Amino acid sequence: MDVPCGLGGYTCPPNRRKLKEMIMKRLQALTALTVGLLQAQQVLAYVQPVAVTASVPITAQVMPAMAGLQATLAEILTTETQIGTAIVQASDKQVAVISEAARAQREADIFGRQTERLERAREQYSVADSICSESASGVAATVGKVSRAQTAVLASGAGVGSAVVQKTIASEPVASRQGGYRSAAMHAQYCTQSESAQYGGTDLCPQVSSLPGGDIEMRSLIDGAGAVGKAPDLTFNQDQVDAGMAYMKNSARHDGGRAPGKGDIQSATGREYQGLMTQYKAIQSAATQPQLDIIAASQANPATQEALQEALQNPSAAEYFASTGSQQAQRTGVMSEREFEAFEVGRRYANTAYETDLQALSGDNLMRELVRVQSLGNWLQLGLKNDQRQANIIAGQQLALAADAKYVPQLQELGAKMSSGVTAHEN
User: Fold this and answer.
1) In which region does residue 9 sit, left (phi positive, over 0), alpha (psi from -120 to 50) or beta (all else)?
2) d(Cα 377, Cα 345) in Å, to the nearest integer?
3) What does the DSSP 8-state code read for residue 260?
4) 146, CA 20 to 30 Å: which among 76, 122, 130, 408?
């Protein structure tokens, strides 16, 4: 039995040792050759896919850790998804709120501009429902015509309620003495307290009158006859009209001489008398005209009724009328020309409620009101101009009377000398 060299302390013979060394060298050379071949073939080799079917470390350690990591990542993803969804929803809500606010602001701006345009249009083009009550200027001319016509009626004695006053005014002139009797009889209706103490109970002063001194006091023309201390009346009742006419008769239409009869007028003296009486009546007419005008302007004027009804639709005008209107106007709803003018002026100046109305006006409405006020002032100034013309006429007549007093006696004296043939020689 052959025992391998080196085993059991057996020492190989030298030949076998050399053989063994040769074999080892050849094995080493073969191994080196194999490695060299493998290295040489590596350049031409290609990747060969392999499938690893199992791995204990991977299965036992890595995979469980990966599973836990995947679960954690899944939870993180879910949480982030929910947070993102909430953020998106909140953003949507904010966008919706902002959009709604912007839309509401646009609508408000549009509505504001529309309202502003409508208000401008209303101010420029609308006519107030109270346009007729804001001014009674439309009837001013008619009121004036009615008043002027009434002046002529009063001058003839018509329109007077008292029979005594009417007879005194309407009858033809009488002698001065008889005219005094008539004035005394007429004054019996206007007996004063002091006169009653002197001769009360007689036919010339039966009792103290409710219109004391109505035929002798100028206030009968200005404020209306009545008890002492009464409030002024710009619209007279019939008794106040009669008192004003009685004052006119006593102050300006005197009886300078009787009217000539048919037989008297045929003579030369009668004709001269009638001529002087005609001239005297012309002067009397001028003297009585201002008084007749103011009495006629103080009578209730039917033309003012509709205008007053319209004006009282305005609260400020109604308030002013209630506090300042005459008893006659408040009772009948008709005022005189004087009160009509005073009402139109006073309700715009002496009326605090009008100031409130004025503050509420703007645009064209305010401009119209300014034009109305200016037009009212122009109308009143026209009345003043007419009154001044009348005053100038009367002043001219007064100048003529003064000239008569100075020159007529001299002319009569010289005329008598001329008729008698007397000649005056120049020095």
Assistant:
1) left
2) 9
3) P
4) 130
pLDDT at 37: 58
Q: What token pair was written down for 185? A: 């009889």
Q: What are the structure tokens assigned to 312, written together?
A: 């009282």
* Count of alpha carbons within 13 angstroms of residue 365, beta-carbon side: 19
Distance CA 406, CA 106 (A): 93
Structure tokens at 178: 């008889």
Q: If you write DSSP's letter for every residue of 161-199 in order, what string do you get? A: --HHHHHHHHSPP--HHHHHHHHHHHHGGG--HHHHHHH
Say which amino acid occupies 371.
V
Q: How confident is the model at residue 294, as a pLDDT?
A: 93
Q: Tell me the two tokens of residue 362.
A: 């703007």
Site of tokens 């004035």 = 183
**With contact defined as beta carbons under 8 Å apart, do 236 and 298 qualify?**
yes
pLDDT digits (tens, 9 = 90+) for 306-364: 888 888 888 888 888 999 889 999 999 999 999 998 888 888 888 877 777 777 776 77
Separation of alpha carbons 112 and 106, rounded Å:
10
Q: Which two tokens stand for residue 252?
A: 């300006």
Phi, psi dihedrals of residue 202, rounded to the nearest 5°: -85, 175
Calpha distance 89→96 (Å, rounded): 10
- The average pLDDT across 49-74 equals 76
Q: Are 27 and 19 in contact (CB under 8 A)?
A: no
Residue 236, helix vs strand vs coil: strand
Per-residue pLDDT tens over the stretch 218-257: 999 999 999 988 999 999 999 999 999 999 999 988 888 8
pTM across the whole model:
0.65
- Rounded Cα distance between 114 and 377, Å, is 39
